[in-house]
């Protein structure tokens, strides 16, 4: 399936509207600069790394923002697929927070909860990457990325198990995660539109 | 301290009761888990669940809600005979018990 830069921008706007959040450029955000400074001070993460590498979602009361460290719709095909997967991943965090008001507190206070929320969202990456490439992301590699979220070995093992179980569905073409279903329906519809446009050109 | 000062005032009583309630709540929260074995998996109806490090069951997937975009797979929660993990699988790939049902 062909993916254009413009489509990725439109897709992000569609998902932002559907899941009711604002897209904010992370490096331009004063609150993220402050959080980055704080994390740097307490030795959790370098401010530069926090601002340039990680996408952050904050859903707290009326504050519904996804802070994005990259320019949406810019890059080659692999970058664009990654941006689509990040969008769906963050939408799943929005779903978690809307489903469970204690999610932000549990995310910060419990390693097991943080591991669960991330496993739940990483499943979306797996589903999206499979849809676009037919390649299965490795559950072990995904689970290991959670070292950066200060999630210990025992919890990472549980995450890997979640993703191993999910991968059996994913490689058979099934989709578990809500925002992935929404995203795949959107991209399938885009593809149909492009195809029907091509057919009408051929007829002319 | 005179003996009369040992008697708890109204505020002290409230603080003591509050403290006791807090302690009971804390014990309840700490002990209120499912008591499962971390890393274990199970089928809870159509739901695949995994036991986390806090001994609570957490949802991996509800097999009845899987979308397969027209593939028409009959997803069932069962024990995967290949790795011994409860999973959502097409029903014909499930390990069957003696009665012919999915385990």
Report on the architecture of this protein:
The complex is a heterodimer of chains A (204) and B (103). Chain A is mainly α. Helices cover 67% and strands 7% of the residues of chain A. Chain A has one domain. Chain A contains 9 helices and 3 strands, in the order αβααββαααααα. Chain A is globular and about 65 Å long. In chain B, 25% of the residues lie in helices and 24% in strands. Chain B is of the alpha+beta class and 103 residues long. Chain B folds into 2 domains: 1-32; 41-93, no CATH class. Chain B starts with a helix and ends in a 13-residue tail after the last strand. Chain B contains 2 helices and 5 strands, in the order ααβββββ. In chain B, strands 1-2-3 form a 3-stranded antiparallel sheet, with no helix packed on it. In chain B, strands 4-5 form a two-stranded antiparallel sheet. Chain A binds chain B through residues 110-112, 115-116, 119, 154-155, 157-158, 161-162, 164-166, 168-169, 172-176, 181, 184, 188, and chain B through 38-39, 41, 48, 50, 52-54, 56, 58, 60-62, 65-69, 71, 73, 75, 80, 83, 85-90.
Shape descriptor of chain A reads globular
Shape of chain B: globular
Number of strands of chain A: 3
Order of helices and strands of chain A: HEHHEEHHHHHH
Could you name the ranges of chain A where pLDDT drops below 50 across 5 or more consecutive residues? Answer: none
Number of domains of chain A: 1
The SS-based structural class of chain A is mainly alpha
Report the end-to-end length of chain A measured between terminal Cα atoms: 24 Å
Global structural class of chain B: alpha+beta
Element-level helix/strand string of chain B: HHEEEEE
Tally of alpha and pi helices of chain A: 9
Q: Which strand order do you get reading across the main beta sheet of chain B?
A: 1-2-3
